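ok trying again, last paste got cut off:
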Amino acid sequence: MAKQRLEPTIVKPEDVDPRHDWTRPIPAFGGMNVDFEERVDFRRLHRYRLGRTRNALAVSGLGAVLTFDQHNIRYISSTVIGEWARDKLTRWCLLTGNGEPYVWDFGSAAKHHRLFAPWLEDDHCRAGLVGLRGAIHPKVGLFKRAAAEIYAVLKEEGVHKMPLGVDMLELPMLFELQALGLEIRDAQQVMLDARELKSQDELMLLNSSASIVDGTYQKIAEALKPGVRESEIVALANYDLYSKGSDCVEAINAISGERCSPHPHNFTDRLLRPGDQAFFDIIQSYMGYRTCYYRTFNVGRATASQRDAYKRAREWIDAAIAIIKPGVRSDEVANCWPTADKIGFADEMEAFGLEFGHGLGLGLHERPIISRLNSGTDPTEIKSGMVFALETYCPASDGFSAARIEEEIVVTDTGCRIITLYPAEHLPIANPY
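nice, full thing came through this time. structure:
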């Protein structure tokens, strides 16, 4: 017999994690918890994230959320099995109302979590497998079996007649859930609502993650010399980041010389040359919390055109930073930046991602997303506790150079703080002649 459904309890953030004291700096630690000062409290972090998810679920009209997105699984359950699982859609997590998280994991990882994740109920850590993105044919029946197990939990917890929110999944999984009579709705918006405001522990992890990249940029600046390849800089950065404790280097852009305009968003084996303008983006995570952190350099020397491009990119980002505070709307921030035609593009779709802001957390793109493409239609209110990156791009008048700057921002009660600290006020000249 199904349980009678209980109304979800609204969890107050202060009941699980007090907000950060903005009169104090945000700490950045080396990675090890110690007994002589308070650092990240991972169990407090878990309670906060689960509480935020419960609150978002309570007002969503959904009976439960079913997540295949690795960031959402980690947010709800505080489990992860590494970068291997990122694109395989083979782990999933279910949370219903006042229920506790269920995690279906890849083979032996389920047994591992029963041993080492005591914050999860023992029988809620289960082995599961579906299609490995189609490699296992639906006729094997794994999707049907998974759907039946999910439905059984929904029925046991009294929410099987309510809509089920799902963030992403393979189509055969959708068909099997629908075959059981479940109404499927979008859960990604619910989860992004939950992940919007960061706790003091999340702020520490985001700041520590940025501090890793501060040091990597010092290594990059020292290595930027004629004859070095873009790919060598990427290799150097990967080594340095993992050595310092990064748990995932998602991508590193390395763009130089004639490749700078238009921005191609990738790296090659191009050799750096004297006078090149070069910019880099380091996207990596520490304890799951990501950076998106652009810096521009010139190799040895810079022209007036290159310096002017950098100056304008800096002015545009500074104008946006200057207005950031609670209550400001994302469209107001986007209006600080030039329109697409002013930087050589046909429209805002073609220029998307160049004059841009995006939330940061376990995911690279959380709320708010700030650009002229979307913010005018759906403006987001800036709130204390948000963390996002602001990035600008300015092509140089020489027709091929360009400057790219990005700062990560923590919104406070009265304004904002920058946590990306590698110097970028003026164009850095690496190894000047």
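cool. The chain has two domains: 13-195, 200-430. The first strand starts at residue 64 and ends at 67.
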